[in-house]
Amino acid sequence: MANSKKASLREVMHLNNRAFKILYHKYPRLFLSGGLYQSLHALSPYVGIYLSAQLINELAGTRNVERLQTWVLAALCSAAVLAFLEAVLQRWQTYEYNVAREDINSIYAQKMIEMDFSCVVSSKTQEDFSQIRQNANWAGWGFPRIRDFFNSILQSVFSACGAVALTISLFTARIPVQNSFAFLNHPFFAILMLGMMLAAIFLSACCNNRASVYWIQYAQQAKFGNRFFSFFGGLSMDRHRAMDLRMYDQEQVCRSYVRRNKSFTPGSFIARKAKGPMGMLCAVGVMTSVAFTGAIYLFTCIKAWAGAFAVGSVTQYIGAFTKLSGSIGQLFNLVGDLRGNAAFLRTTFDFLDIPHEMYQGSLTVEKRSDCKYEIEFRDVSFRYPGSEVYALRHASMKFRVGERLAIVGRNGSGKTTFVKLLCRLYDPTEGEILLNGINIRKYDYAEYMSIFSIVFQDFKLLAFGLGENVAAKSKYNRMRAESCLRQAGFGERLDALEKGLDTYLYREFDEKGVEISGGEAQKIALARALYKDAPFIILDEPTAALDPIAESEVYTKFNELVGDKTAIYISHRLSSCRFCDTIAVFEEGAIVQRGTHEELVAQPGEYAELWNAQAQYYRKNGE
Amino acid sequence: MEKAKQRNKPKYTMWKNAVFMMALAWKQHKSVLILCIVSALLAVILNLIELFLAPMILQKVEMSAPLVQLFEVIAVFVFSLLLVRGVQAYINENTLFGRVYLRLLLVRRADEKFASTSFPNTENPEILKHAESASRALSNNRAAGEAIWETLTDLGKNFLGFLLYLMLLSTVDPVLLVVTTLAALVSYFTSKRLNEWGYRHREEESRYQKKIAYIQSRKEDLQFAKDIRIFCIAPWLDDVYTSVVKMYRKFHARAQCIYIWTDIIHIFMTFLRSGLSYLYLLDLTLREGLPASTFLLYFSAIGGFANWITGLLDDFSRLHKQSIDLSVVREFYELPEQFRFEEGEKLEPVLDKAYEIQLRHVSFRYPGAESDTLQDICLTIRPGEKLAVVGLNGAGKTTLVKLICGLYDPTQGEVLLNGVDIRRYDRRDYYRHFSAVFQQFSILSSTLAENVAQSADEVDWDRVQACLEKAGLAQMVTRLPQGLNTHIGREVYEDGIELSGGEIQRLMLARALYKNAPLILLDEPTAALDPIAESELYQKYNDFTLGRTSVFISHRLASTRFCDRILFIENGVIAEQGSHEQLLQKGGHYAELFAIQSRYYQEGGMENGEL
User: Fold this and answer.
1) pLDDT for res B605
2) Residue A229 is assigned to a structural domain of this protein
3) How far does the CA of residue A10 sit from the closest CA of chain B (Å)?
4) Domain span including residue B307
C-alpha cells in the first residue's frame, strides 16, 4: 500500500503541498473553477437560512403583509440566482475535471518516457508504478486526492466564515436583565459552547480515527485479496488459457483456491471488526456530535424563550451553528486524510524522482556521407541492475561500417545484451564502447541514437497511420515511406489498402483500421528501420515465429536492402546467418568464437555444437 | 450495458431481477436483506424527526410554553436522534461486507461458466462481448451486481416517505400537491432527456478516453520502451495525444453546455413550486391565524414531498439500468452449450487400456470462414502409435489437434474414441484422457508443486519431484528458496518468481507427465528456443511418449523422425503419410520441403542461400 513509516506533520504538509503545486501548474483552471464554485456553494445556504429566519420572525411577530412579501420575494429570487451561478460554476468545474481526470496519468507516462531505459525495466520502478496506479484506482489516493482536499478546505473555511457571521448575534443578543436566565448573557457561556463544540469534534474525530485503524490493519489483506481475485477472476477471460483450462480442469483448482481465500467473506477480519468495535466507534462518534447539537438547541431555545431574540432566529442560529461545527469537523478530519495521502504520495514522488543516471555528453555524431563509422567494444562487462551474474563478460570486438556481422548463441548467452549496450539502452558496468575512437557516453544521446535502426524480436507498432508508423513521426515524406514499404515487401498489401499510407493499423484509434498479421507487422517494422536510414541496422531475431525457410528469406532479402550500411544479425537459427562476413559466437556472456561460417564449423566448439544440433535432422542417414 | 441495449429485449424484467437478487440474498446471506430494510426504515424515521424537530421546538418558544415542556421536547428529540443516528452509523459500517460477498458469488458463477463453456464459445466474438458485459456488471461496488442493494434500499425509503408525507399533507389543498408533483416530474424528465445526450454520445466519449489511455499506456509500457527510444517516438506520441485531448475537451465543453439546461429547468421548477407554496401557505397562515411553526412544518413538508418523488423516479431509472445489466449476467449463466457436460455419458480414463482414436470424414470450417480449414480427414490413430503431424505454418495442424482432443466438434464427420462418437460423452471426462502441451498455456499464480499437480488439495509430492526431474527442472528446483512451495508468477504473490521460456516449456512437460493420461498431445512449443534446448526437448518428448498413444506436431519436418508414422498436412488435407524414409522415397511435397529445409544445413548449399 504505502510506506509504513509514519510521516511528521511537516512532511505531510510538504508532500501534499508539492503535489498541489505540480497539479496547480498543470491544471490552473481546474483549481480556479473549483475554488469559485466551492466558495459560492459554501456561502449560498446562509442566504436562505437568513431570509427564511426573517420570514418566520415576521410571521411570529407583527405579520406585516408587505414585509412578508418582500422577504418571500427576496428568498425566491436569491435562491434562483444563486442556484444559477452555482450551476454555471459547477459545470465549468466538471468540464475541467473531466478532462484532467483522463489526463492526470500522463504525468506518470511522461516520466516513464523520459526515464533511463534501465530504470524503466527495473522491477522496483515497475512495482512503484503499479502501486501508484492501484492506489489511485482503489480510492483515488495520491494525486487525485489533492483536488478533493483543495475543494474541501475551501468549502469548510468559507462555510465556517459564513456560519460565524450568522452566529455572532446569538451570543451578543442579550436576555432582558429581569429574566432569571440573564446569567446566560455572560461571555463564559459563549466560551463554554465553543469549548463543547471543539470537544465534540475532537471526540468524534477520535472515534473515527480509532475505527479507521482497523481498515489500515486490513489494507494488506485487502490488497492481497484484490490481486488474488483479479487473477483468479480474470483467468477464464484470458483466451490463451482457454485450452489448458479445459484439458487440466483448472476450474476445479481455482474453485478450491477461491474457497480458501477469506479476504472478502462475511467472516473476514474487517467484517468481524465492523460488527464489534468498529461499528460501535462509528456510532459513538456520530452520537457525540448529535449530543452537541442537543446542547445548541438547548442554549438557543432558552435564549429565545427568555426573549433575547425572535423565534425565527432560532432556526438561523441552530442551522448556522451546526454548520460551523460540521465545517470545523471537516477540517479536522482533513488532517487525517492529508496524513493518509502523504504515505501514498511518498510512493508517487519516489517514482517521479527517479534520477537520470546515464551520463549524457554533448558531442554531435559526425554525419559522414561515406558512413565511415567504427564501433569498438573494449573489454566490456555488464550486469543487469540488481543481478549478481554478469550477462556479458570482457567482450572486446571491433567492427566497421559496411560489414555484415552475425551474432549467434544459445538463449541467455548475452546476444541481446550486446545489442542493448551498443545502442545505449544500458551503460556497461565495466569497460567502454567507442564510436570512431570516442566513448559513446560522450555523445549527445539523441544524436547517438540517430545512427541506429533496430528491429527487435518484440518490435512494436502503434495503432496510428501506416505511413506514420514507417516514419515514426506524424509529418513525414510520403514518397520515402512508400518506397521503404515496397522494399520491405509490403507493396502488394499497400496497393490493396484503400487509404494507402493513411490506413490505420489495428482498431484502437480507427474502427476502420486494419488488423495485420505477424508477417505483415514485421515487414512494416523492417520498412521503419529502412526509413530511418541509419548507418547501423540491427535485426534481433524479429522472425522467431516464422518457419526456418521464411526466416532465411527475410534475412537474405534484407541483406540486399541494407546496401553499404553495417548490418548486425542476431539469430539462433544459424542457417540464416551463413552469408555474414563475420560470425561472433556468444556463450555465457563471453564472445567465444569469431570467424566465417566455414571456419567455425570446421573447428570444434560452441558454433559447431549449435550447428550440429540443428543440422542433425537433415543429415541423409538420420543418425 | 451498451451491448445489452443493442441486444433485443432483456430476458428478465426489473421485478424478476429484483426477486432474483432477493432470493439469492435470502438463500446465501439473509443479513443483506435485513440491513436493507432496517436502513430504509431508519432513514425515513430520521427524516420525520428532522421534519418535526424545528417546528415543534419553535412552537414551544412561540407559545411561551412552560420551560419544562420545552426541555421535554428537546430531550425527546435529541434522544431519538441519538438513537437513530447511532444505529444508522453502526449499520452503515456493516452493509458493505455481505454485499461484496454476494457479488463475489455471482462473479464466481460467471467465471465458472466461462471457464467450462464449450471451447468454441471462447472464440466467438459475440459471446466474448457478452462475457465482458456480464463481468462488467459485476466488476466493482458500483456495478449493478452490488449497487442494486443501495437502489432497493432507496426505493423502499422513498416509497415509504412518499406515503407518509402524502398522509401528512392530506389536509393541504390537493392543487398544491399536484403542482409539486408536476414540477418534480417535468424537472426530472427534461433532465433525463437532456442527460441522454451523454448516453447517445457515450461511444464518442469512450473513443476519446480509449485513445488517451492508449497513448498513455504505450508510453508506460515496458514492451514499447525500446522502440520508443531507438526511433525517438515521443514527439510523435505527443502530437497525437495533444490533438486527441483537444477533441476530448471540445466534447466535454459541448456536453456541459447542454447539461446546464437541466439545472436551469430545475431551478425554474423549484422557483415555481416554492413560490406557489409560499403563496398558498402564507395565505392560509394569515387567514386562519396559524402559528409560524406550522407554516414552517408545511413548507418543509412540501419541499420534502418533492424530494421523495424525485427520489422515487431516480430509483426506478437506476433499477431499470441495473436490471438490464443483471439480465445480461443471468442470460450469460444460461448460455446454451453445444458440448455435452453433466448430461453426457460418464467415462473414466484407464491407463493400461488400449485407446484408439478415429476421425471419420472430418471437415472443419471456422465460423464465418469461406472455406474449410480441414477437408474430409480420415485417420485412425492406433493404440500405442506415435503419430507426427507436420506441415508449414497455417496448414491446419493445430486445428486437427483441437478436433482430436475435443476442443472443437467437426463441421462434418465424426471423431470416435474406441468406436464411440465423443460427442456422447461428458466432455470433461473426455478431456481427462489427454496429457497435452499446447503452444499457449495457463500457469497458475500458485506454488510450483500445485502447478505440476494441478490440484490445490491433493499433491503427491514424490510424484511432483519425479516429474520435475524427468522434465529437466530438478536443478532449478534446488536453487529455489522455498523449493516446491515457491510461488510462480507475480500476479498474486509478490515473492513469486518469473520463469524463462525454456523453464515454462519444461514445467508444462512436467505437468503433462504428472497427469499421466493415456493419450498424449504435443503441439510444437519450441519456436523460441535455441537449437540445443530444442533438441533436448525433442529427446525428452520422445522418451516421454514411449509406449503410449501420442500425437506430436511440428513444423520442422525432420524433428519427428522418431515417430511411427508422419502425416504431412497441406492445405487442409493429409497430403502424404508414412515413415520419414517412405515419405522421402515417395519424392512428393514432403521430400521437396525437406530438401529445402536441409539445404541450409548441408555443406555447399551456399549458392542457394545467397540468392
Assistant:
1) 41
2) no
3) 32
4) 2-333
Q: Is the pLDDT of residue A591 over 70?
A: yes
Instruction: Give the integer Cα–Cα distance in Å for B463 and B480.
Output: 18
For residue B75, the tally of other CB atoms under 10 A from its CB is 13
Calpha distance A332→A201 (Å, rounded): 8
> If you measure CA to CA, which chain A residue comes closest to B508?
A244
Displacement of CA B25 from its chain's centroid (Å): 22
Number of Cβ within 10 Å of residue B300's Cβ equals 16
Distances (CA, A) of A24 to A20, A93, A147, B170: 6, 14, 9, 54
The residue type at B440: Q
Q: What is the DSSP string of B308-369?
A: HHHHHHHHHHHHHHHHHHHHHHHHHHT---SS-STTSBP----TTS---EEEEEEEE--TT-
Cα–Cα distance between A312 and A330 in angstroms, integer?
27
Domain count across chain A: 2
Of B47-61, B244-258, B383-397, B457-471, the one with minimum mean pLDDT is B383-397
Domain end, chosen from B468, B494, B516, is at: B516
Give the distance from CA B175 to its chain's centroid: 51
Q: Do B82 and A287 touch (CB under 8 A)?
A: yes
Are residues B282 and B225 both part of a single domain? Answer: yes
Q: CB–CB of B438 and A243 under 8 A?
A: yes
Smallest CA–CA distance, residue B578 to chain A, in Å, is 16
Give the range among A41-55, A223-237, B67-81 with minimum mean pLDDT.
A223-237
Nearest chain A residue to B210 by CA distance is A508
Domain boundary among B473, B499, B516: B516
Rounded to an integer, what is the distance from CA A267 to the centroid of its chain? Answer: 34
pLDDT 10s digits, B96-144: 999 999 999 999 999 999 999 999 999 888 898 899 999 989 988 889 9
Helices marked H in B137-291:
144-168, 174-200, 202-220, 222-230, 234-288
Running DSSP on this structure, what letter comes out for residue A413?
S
Nearest to B131 among A75, A237, A449 (CB): A237
Residues 6+ apart with CB under 8 A from A611: A574, A600, A601, B531, B601
- Nearest Cα to A544, choosing from B226, B531, B541? B531
Q: Which three cell numbers stand for residue A53?
A: 429566519
Selected residues 310-329 of chain A with any CB under 8 Å from a CB in chain B: 311-312, 314-315, 318
Q: Do A241 and B441 touch (CB under 8 A)?
A: yes
- Which chain A residues are Cβ-neighbours of B215 within 8 angstroms? 109
Distance CA B285, CA A59 (A): 9
- Which of A123, A138, A162 terminates a domain? The answer is A162
What count of residues does chain B have?
A: 611
CB of A56 within 8 Å of any CB in chain B?
A: yes
Residue B369 pLDDT class (50, 70, 90 cuts): confident
- By Cβ distance, the residue of B295, B455, B529 closest to A59 is B295
Q: What CATH number does residue B7 fall under?
A: 1.20.1560.10
Q: Which residues contact B580 (CB under 8 A, 6 or more apart)?
A: A622, B558, B560, B561, B566
Q: Which residues 405-424 of A are in CB contact (within 8 Å) with B? A: 409-413, 420, 423
Which of A246, A509, A573 is closest, CB to CB, to B431? Answer: A246
Predicted TM-score (pTM) of the model is 0.84
Best mutation target among A69, A88, A212, A236 (most B Cβ atoms within 10 Å) is A236
Chain A hits for B114, CB-CB cut-off 8 Å, are: 236-237
DSSP calls for B449-480: HHHHHT-SS---HHHHHHHHHHTT-HHHHHHS
* Spatial distance between the Cα atoms of A425 and B275, rounded to a whole number of angstroms: 72
Residues of A in contact with B434 (CB under 8 A): 247
Contact residues, chain B, for A233 at CB < 8 Å: 107, 111, 135
Instruction: Give the count of Cβ contacts less than 8 A between chain A and B.
Output: 413
